[in-house]
Design a protein that fits this description.
Two copies of one chain form a homodimer. Chain A is mainly α and 133 residues long. Helices cover 52% and strands 11% of the residues of chain A. Chain B binds a DNA duplex (30 and 30 nucleotides) through α3 and α4. Chains A, B: It holds the Pfam family HxlR.
DNA sequence: TATAGTAGGTACCTAGAGGAAAGTAACTAC
DNA sequence: GTAGTTACTTTCCTCTAGGTACCTACTATA
């Protein structure tokens, strides 16, 4: 199996997990491209590869495959292969994946009310020039 | 200012944010090393640079500085510089940063009940051999 | 004959994140 | 005069995630 598929082994000596119970979740759910994939599947239901590819703009098929495999391995996504011609594959969120929904909802809510605060803070920081001290 | 400090500009043409309202939050809160830092600050209160450096194992001072600057810029962390000798700098979570607490709590809760499901799914997947289809 | 559609696989390459290690300012203590 | 302390900064280097591009098999359609 390709080394590219597996994440950088969660080695206790090199990972930021020790001080933080949420880092493992970040590795599983919030690594690059995984959240849009999970979001898309939970928001729009079962989808084919190309549908995901089109909906998630700028993702390359290679990376989409990688992430889907990873999510399948983690039990968050279910892959169904139909041996037709042309081949048809469908992806849907698993039961375990669905337990993330309230999390996603809360994050979306936090974003709706606080992202603008973050952006205002950035402008304030940038306008103030380089940090003194 | 060093290019290393700034994140890869959130360009609408290259980012996975379009299909997903939670990606921006991921960029801000859940990028590498930021969650342990925020967690540490919200769990153990105001801390000095070296305290964070010791608590978050294996983080290098360079990266810690980068992440703290980023979090300060985003208004999630407050930095207080005391011009003493030797210099003393204290970091604490901001009011805006504190609004993340319920999020963190929910994620920690999800982890507590579901991480083992993920690990079991992985073992099942790996034992089944390469994906057929 | 050639092209399109589907779900990827594979080889190659680059940008950039992040690590290692040394340097810096400014003062104190020995 | 030298070592220690703190909070970084800077330089150099490595590694790898991710992008580009091309390839597979099979059929329908023009």
């Amino acid at each position: 199996m390709a080394t590219e598929t597996s994440r950088p082994a969660a080695d206790a000596t090199t990972d930021p997990e020790l001080a933080c119970p949420i880092s493992p979740v970040v590795d599983i759910v919030f690594s690059r491209w995984t959240s849009p994939i999970l979001w898309s599947l939970q928001a729009f239901g079962r989808q084919r590869f190309v549908e995901l590819e089109r909906r998630i703009e700028n993702i390359t098929p290679k990376v989409l495959t990688q992430r889907l495999r990873q999510l399948e391995r983690d039990g968050l996504v279910v892959r169904t292969y139909h041996p037709e011609v042309p081949p048809r594959v469908e992806y849907e969120i698993s039961e375990l994946g669905r337990t993330l929904s309230p999390l996603f909802a809360q994050i979306a809510e936090w974003a709706a009310t606080n992202i603008e605060h973050v952006e205002r803070a950035r402008r304030r920081y940038d306008d103030a020039g380089a940090p003194r001290g």
